[in-house]
UniProtKB/TrEMBL annotation, chains A, B:
Belongs to the MoaE family. This is Molybdopterin synthase catalytic subunit. It comes from the Bacteria. Heterotetramer of 2 MoaD subunits and 2 MoaE subunits. Also stable as homodimer. The enzyme changes between these two forms during catalysis. It catalyses: 2 [molybdopterin-synthase sulfur-carrier protein]-C-terminal-Gly-aminoethanethioate + cyclic pyranopterin phosphate + H2O = molybdopterin + 2 [molybdopterin-synthase sulfur-carrier protein]-C-terminal Gly-Gly + 2 H(+). GO terms for biological process: Mo-molybdopterin cofactor biosynthetic process. GO terms for molecular function: molybdopterin synthase activity. The keyword Chaperone does not apply. It is an enzyme of class 2 (transferase). Signal peptide: none annotated. Pathway: Cofactor biosynthesis; molybdopterin biosynthesis. Its EC number is 2.8.1.12.
TrEMBL record, chains C, D:
This is Molybdopterin synthase sulfur carrier subunit. SUPFAM superfamilies: MoaD/ThiS (SSF54285). Belongs to the MoaD family. GO terms for molecular function: nucleotide binding. It comes from Solirubrum puertoriconensis. Gene3D superfamilies: 3.10.20.30.
Amino acid sequence: MLIQLTDQPIDVAAVLQAVQADGAGAVNSFIGTIRNQSTGRRVVRLHYEAYDAMAVHQLRRVAEQAQERWPMLQQVAVLHRKGTLEIGDVAVVVAVSTPHRAESFAACQYIIDTLKEVVPIWKKEEYEDGTVWVAAHP
Amino acid sequence: MLIQLTDQPIDVAAVLQAVQADGAGAVNSFIGTIRNQSTGRRVVRLHYEAYDAMAVHQLRRVAEQAQERWPMLQQVAVLHRKGTLEIGDVAVVVAVSTPHRAESFAACQYIIDTLKEVVPIWKKEEYEDGTVWVAAHP
Amino acid sequence: MNLSIALFGITREIVGAPTLEVALQPGQSVQQLLEQLHQTYPALGELRSLAVAVNNEYAPADALLQERDEIALIPPVSGG
Amino acid sequence: MNLSIALFGITREIVGAPTLEVALQPGQSVQQLLEQLHQTYPALGELRSLAVAVNNEYAPADALLQERDEIALIPPVSGG
């Protein structure tokens, strides 16, 4: 299991390599990148802040929950950036390997969906005329 | 749109790079690799044979169908190997980018599921004591 | 009319050649081609499915064949 | 007892500091801590949600706090 919260660029190819296994015929991966717009506003860059210890603990827990739900899951990798990211930068990578493909899609989607609900990481979007903490207010 | 049927190794990192777009926040990819076993038998290697012209035509059609179903789809790549592949080799890569993540999972899964139903590519599994054309017989 | 039919995978092995020349009456259908092939090569009938492609598209059973068509037998595909 | 509460994102900006020292009666709950903080910092009440983490886990409202706990406020997360 590869779990990482990092202020360095994520090497996606290395992550995909890490989840490959001779018994796994399927690798599904999700890459979240920084978009140039959000709810109609032009985004200049993003700032990610994390509660480091809890974020790593919760990332690991999400990966473990996926392994419990999909016991055939062979390898799991979840990596998340923190700090300042520019448009196109990779913010998060989830990659899983399973013997067959349906479970690889389901497990990968479960991990990214759950990550976004429980892992204490916050992003502040920077526009040309200000900043907003995403999803903070109703 | 990147569509390829090739007898050369697939550069997964280059494929992922190819589908990134500044307006796309989500990239989902599926990588199919050669497993060391199939229905309980130990696989030594695989031989892929394709009806080249029709396979490329059908690969493109599947990608176009995905773009019709998910108009927000930004980039699509579908690459398939042919020839002899060893355990762990990448046989197929599907990668799509979309503004939001749910559609990236759905479109990628649609493409690989449909590919496996309609694209004229055949694999012959080689075991230590023989070979079998996969799925040929009931 | 004389048709040249491309063969792949297990159909190529059943017939023992990568292409098969077939003489048919003009205006015969996909269905009639398949019936003729099944009689000559009974092992084709043991396949899980057998489709015919005409000019890179799957052809329905009632499609009529023409001499200049690019025709292929498509046994169960197993890509991915 | 004196608690040191870690702040992140918008809660850090609302309070204007990365940690907050709070004096509470021993045996107070998460719920009571939140009520006290809402009185001091009304802007916390405008958030879509506000959770409390104790020792890296989300704590239920009735969880009792202890002086050596590692406590943090968790405004709506937005990772990914």
